[in-house]
Amino acid sequence: MTKFVVDASAVLHLAAEGITVGAEHELLAPTFLRSQVMSNLHEAVQRGELSDEVARERLAQANKIKVRMLGDAPMRRRAWEVADRLGWWETLGAEYVALTELQGDALVTLDGDFARALDGVVTLASVDDLR
To answer: For residue 108, which of 86, 131, 87 has the smallest C-alpha distance?
Structure first.
């Protein structure tokens, strides 16, 4: 079984495209993922990029995706260390990195800036790898 850490951009893409994750894969994410997904959708509505109806439907679809949420003390300590190591002020992205380092085989993101920042830090995978 391959363990993929997924960020909000990956989950939103899976929901929007109706992509089914292969049974041989397990998805992992920090405990705040669902709040981040909801916030991203609400922001898209406020910017006029999505209608309220479409955003709520995508949220419902995203909530159906089976993701194991993790956020124990060792992961949070590692996230602090990752943020220090990478020179990041915030730790949200560092939690994805820490989870990948501790339990994941690869991280899946569609955020180009985030992916570029992780070049050589953790293994990255594409959404297609989840099929």
So the answer is: 131
> For residue 96, what pLDDT is reported?
98
Integer Cα distance of 115 and 77 in angstroms = 22
Taking the C-alpha atoms of residue 1 and residue 25, their distance in angstroms, rounded to an integer, is 5
pTM of the model: 0.96
For residue 58, give the amino acid letter: R
CB atoms < 10 A from the CB of 59, how many?
Answer: 18
Mean pLDDT score, 27-44: 98
How far, in whole angstroms, is CA 120 from its chain's centroid?
18
E strand segments, 33-116: 68-70, 106-108
Residue type, 42: H
Q: What is the mean pLDDT of the chain?
A: 97
